Amino acid sequence: MTCEIDEEKPSQPADSFVSVTPVSLGKPCLTSSQCQARDPYSICVQGRCECQRDTPKCSSSNTQCLNDTFQCTNGQCISWYFVCDGEQNCADGTDEENCIPFNCPKEAFQCNDGTCMSRSAVCNGRWECPDGSDEARCYTGIPCDKDSFRCNNGQCLPQYVFCNAVTDCYDGSDESFLLCERGEGCPANSFRCNNERCRSTAILCSGLDGCGDNSDEDRCQVCHCEKPE
């Protein structure tokens, strides 16, 4: 009679079954495995994901996402319009998780009482902040809030109404053909499409083609680091 002896199989490390949350370039990290879950050539350096090899095309300070968009922790980039609006638009929900009172994301609006709101609330004619500070600088005769759009007649409106194909200013200055379609005098805080049209930055990475040539949706994912030599 022979006895069969089972060979002992090597055991897998306990943490091999633990899922790692992907963290993109420039975002806070605890371990390099978080960074590498999103980009294999990135590492965690002093609490932030960095490329092992920085290049002009990709680094934590140049993630290639369009300016004035919000970078989700997972590397997705979305319009500022969605940040702190009460609904999750990042696949990982970080557009709402980071809406911490008195420490709001720069892409959102911080009320005087510290509450975080979407910038779309500013000068929309309704009190969205508990203290009404989103409407405090929206009256004709005073400088408009920096997160709003000022019509030629001094009227203050939400930033997203600029060149959105709907006339909102009483004087129609938000939909000037030369400005919106030809890009003449396109403000520095707006977006110039590849086809020269001028648009509000609210359209960037919104999931819709607001330019007509899709250039507002071209760069809505964080770049990937180059392989180290």
TrEMBL record:
It comes from the Eukaryota. PROSITE patterns: LDLRA_1, LDLRA_2. GO terms for molecular function: hormone binding. It is a single-pass membrane protein. The keyword Membrane applies. Keywords: Disulfide bond, Glycoprotein, Lipoprotein, Membrane, Receptor, Repeat, Transmembrane, Transmembrane helix. The lineage of its organism: Eukaryota, Metazoa, Ecdysozoa, Arthropoda, Chelicerata. CDD domains: LDLa. It is found in: Membrane. This is Low-density lipoprotein receptor-related protein 2.
